[in-house]
Description:
The protein has helices at residues 3-8, 16-38, 51-73, 84-102, 107-121, 127-148, 157-161. By secondary structure, the protein is mainly alpha-helical. The protein has two domains: 9-72; 84-161. The longest helix is centred in the N-terminal third of the chain and has 23 residues, at 16-38.
Amino acid sequence: MTESAAREAPARGIDKAGIVIAALLAAVALVLVYDANQIPATTMYGMGPQVTPVVIAIGLGILALANLIDAVRGNLPPRESADPVAVLLILVGLALLIAIIGFGGGFIPATTTLFVTTSAAFGRRAFVTDLIIGVVLTTLIYVAFDRLLTLSLPAGPLERLL
Length: 162
């Protein structure tokens, strides 16, 4: 199909899934604005901690509006089929991340687990290599955030050794 023929092709009609996605984006933006307004003001002048969530909410609102316009016009690209096994692997990885942190396992094992399950979901089958890569990367991330930036990350037995 030539470029001119692609421009003249009729729209596919209203994309209902695109409208749902636009509504969800707008809902997240509204929640961010509401939560930002619940943060107590700690500065007498200038910008406080409320600014960043509002800026992100504005971006999400613009994205929601653009998505809505494209959905109504039928301009959204066709979606690819989802691999349910890959989606399930990522969801299992997220559930394990929450469980490991919740039971005091710490940031490094939890995030390594998510890394390994996500790479498996994308088709990689080198589990031992991914485990090593995950441990190295998440340890570097932990050290950078916890020690250098002094941000508190969930600490488990492994993190206490550092």
